[in-house]
Amino acid sequence: MSGKADKNSSAKNIHLESEVTCVMNSNVLELKGVTKRFDDEDVLEDINFEVRHGEFLTLLGPSGCGKTTLLRLISGFEQPDAGIICINGIDVKGLSPQARHVNTVFQSYALFPHLNVFDNIAFGLRCKGGLSKVEIQQQVNDALNMVKLSHLSERKPYQLSGGQQQRVAIARAVVNKPSILLLDEPLSSLDYRLRKTMQLELKQLQTQLGITFIFVTHDQEEALSMSDRVVVMHEGRIEQIGTPREVYEEPHSLRVARFIGEVNIFETQIISADEEVFHAIIEGKEFTLKNRRHFSKNQKVYTLVRPEDLEVWSPAEVTDTSQMFPGVVEQVIYKGSTVDLMVRLQSQNLLAATQFFNEDDEKLDFHSGESVWVHWIPGWEVILPDES
Amino acid sequence: MKVDRLFKGTTISIVWLWLSVFALLPTLLVLITSFLKNDPVDLFRWQFSLQNYQALLNPIYFRVFWHSFCVAGLCSLICLVLSYPFAYLLARLDSKYKNLLLFLVIIPFWTSSLIRTYAIISILKAKGLLNSVLLTLGIIHHPLTILYTSTAVIIGLVYSLLPFMILPLYANIEKLDTQFIDAARDLGANTLTTFTRVILPLTFPGIMGGIILVFLPAMSMFYIPDILGGAKSLLVGNLIQNEFLSANNWPLGSAVSMVLTLAMGVLLLLYRRANKIGQYHDEPIGEI
């Protein structure tokens, strides 16, 4: 208990010394050392990141990683136990949700069941006050047009489909012209095709409005396809922040690599290392790899290769097998534009390999039980240290 | 499949039979009686007549109805104002305390309402608990005359009927999704706006439910005005009781009962409307 008190007071001290304060800059949101506890358990620990004006930022992580709590801290429904949150350069500590220039699209939309679509959207404008009836009418109609629901303005929420409810929820939030729009897994209750459509619509809307979006999801595909930057979270901490391409191609940790996309992981023994390169044994074969992360001899590391970076060859097609692994095809999954192969190596390691159909290699004709050679183009792998 | 239908048919028949015997039949008997002629010896004569309803047009009856209506209305309002904050807090409490408090609300039902009403006398009478406390505290200098006034009747009715307001309100407020409150605050609503524009409309079915359970009994609980109001406060319930037990005029008593039943019907209709207003979005499309 005393530890908790100390932490709190130290955070306060920092605040007083104005080492950590809000400054006006191009960031619409800044989080500095934000920590949140529930029942003495850290739900969020030392969260730091900035969001730029007009950015589409995604908080990605498995359920229970604290991303919804983080959203509630930004919207003001929860107060951080330590750290500060700045919105438009102003410390929002103690500001209630209604005083913050932030609006939320809730996971189950939370449309008011007793109000029709028009009144739902007008709710925020009417709360603000100072707007004439005509102005409210105009702005609500604009919002309705934007989400293409003008013809349903008299309907009650329960008379709408899931996708329509979703649009009303978005219109109800953006009509207030917030600095930041928070979206709490807004697409999770829609079916696959509708979700795809809404992803595109949301992205278009965001570009069109220029409002900063902070989008929470546990769907990595959604995160990659929509965001400018992704914040990958795990157990209340930020694992990595980066563009979709960075987090996919250059994961900072095994966790990020595993969570975003599929990945094949090889145990790797370093036999010798210098500044430039290191020599390592992977699946019994010797490799010379670039030493970008200053690994040293005998360090336990892992080599990560994405399924689409693995190549699978029939024994007849290959001559030099010194950098290839022999294996047996266990499963062939035809997916239209690609074929996914599951290949069992001699070490019992099961690999996933995605093969694309292309002009110079038309016969992608593998059968289960077939012996193959597996290989990747050197340099496409990612090497990460052991985390345990 | 066949067994299933047989089961369904039997179950529904039993329900219908039960309702017919215990609800429909007695009401029908009262309805028929209300259209018969009064007979001091045989209670009623088998002869169709509208004279009972005509008699009700007498301003005296109208005044009793109006008085009952006002008393019941005031009683419902007081119950609502007292119950709403309590029910709201109760619904938002930890389930541990929730059950205990609900239990405490229900405990008075274990004692006969009649006995509890007599107990109120000892509180309200000139040298009763209330007056002695107020005198001791120096708030008043002469004992208040509460007993045998309309105030006493209303106190008695509110006390007896309070749980009937709390329980439906609690049931309704507990179902209220806090996401709607979050959404209202997120959209910039202050506490008052959130309450009047979101919480109140969404708990309207609970309010109507409570009013129905309080308003109608308040009009017909004859023993409370009898015990606490003396002869001064006559409610519809007393009217019915008098016609049946003192005046031996069953047809007139039945007619009064029918009017009361009609009033209940209207209130139930209003309740249904209220339920439709507060309907949630998981209701099927095309209901209205």
Tell me what you see in this structure:
The complex is a heterodimer of chains A (388) and B (288). Chain A has helices spanning 2-16, 67-75, 117-128, 133-146, 162-174, 192-209, 220-226, 244-249, 254-259, and strands spanning 27-38, 41-52, 56-60, 82-87, 90-91, 102-105, 180-184, 212-217, 229-234, 237-242, 264-273, 277-282, 285-290, 300-305, 310-313, 325-334, 338-345, 350-356, 371-376, 382-385. By secondary structure, chain A is α+β, with helices and mostly antiparallel strands. Chain A is globular and about 80 Å long. The two termini of chain A are 29 Å apart. Chain B has 13 helices and 2 strands, in the order αββαααααααααααα. A two-stranded antiparallel ribbon of chain B has the order 1-2. In chain B, helix 3 (59-92) crosses helix 10 and helix 10 (204-220) packs antiparallel against helix 13. The longest helix of chain B has 34 residues, at 59-92. Chain B is globular, with a radius of gyration of 23 Å. Chain A binds chain B through residues 75, 77, 96-98, 102-104, 106, 108, 110-114, 123-124, 127-128, 156-160, 165, 172-173, 176, and chain B through 177, 179-180, 182-190, 193, 197-198, 201-202, 204, 277-283, 285-286.
